[in-house]
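In line with agreed milestones, the collection of sequences with tokenised folds has grown. A representative record is reproduced below.
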Amino acid sequence: MNSKKLKPTATLTDKRITEKDIRKASLRYMFGGQLGWNYERMMSVAYVRSIYPILHQLYGEDPDTLQEMLKMEMQFYNTSPFLSAIITGIDLSLQNEKGAKSKDAIAAVKTGLMGPFAAVGDALFGAVIPTIFGSLAAYMGQQGNPVGVIIWLGAALVILFLRYFEMPFAFREGKKLVSNLGNLLNNMTDAATLMGVLVIGGLIPTVVKVTVPFELKIGEKVLVLQTDLLDAILPNLVPVTLVALAYWLLGLKHMNSTRLIWLFLIASIVCYSFKILAIG
């Protein structure tokens, strides 16, 4: 059996990763986290691009080991871009401790964490926060108040600032994070999902202002369908119904957000023209 042994510098390298190296990798990821995205490996190209200088620093003297580590890092990888740096920090922490011997452990960490991190990151940073601050900015903008946009930009800058420190934090904590993140991620996923549903439900009557202007006249008696009937059953019943309809339509096979917008746009014009619906 002619298996080639790794050089000592490739397994337990004497070249240590510094805090400066991690901060450079963090910046490379922040401004290139979606470069090279593809349907075969998704985020792997950007992931390897962000840490390649460190990999070359650790294993550059042994091209065979560098190639093996690059192959491992280039395996399929996809998670929330907002939390991916934590996985990268853990990855580099393991390599800083055990070199190429950590290859299997790194592959297991990436496989085990990218799914839960995708759920938490997409729910929190892809749905909840944009819904809250985006709707606030839009609502205040309708009133001619620019403060909402300033708040939204401030929130985006805070998120960007926090992302810069994700990788250094994960690198320092290393293996301790792996054992502590399991239950925490499940709880955060449930909490973020619940919060997103609650926030969206609360914003419906504020953002979607639709009423039924139909009036029924019986002699001298006038029945206003919206105020006398619908509001008595459930205030904002029409907006809630329209949002539920949009949600249901998005679940259909050939429906997407662009087609839904056009469908609602045309339906709105028709319903307004025939005085079926009106702006509340």
Notes: The chain is about 70% helix and 5% strand.
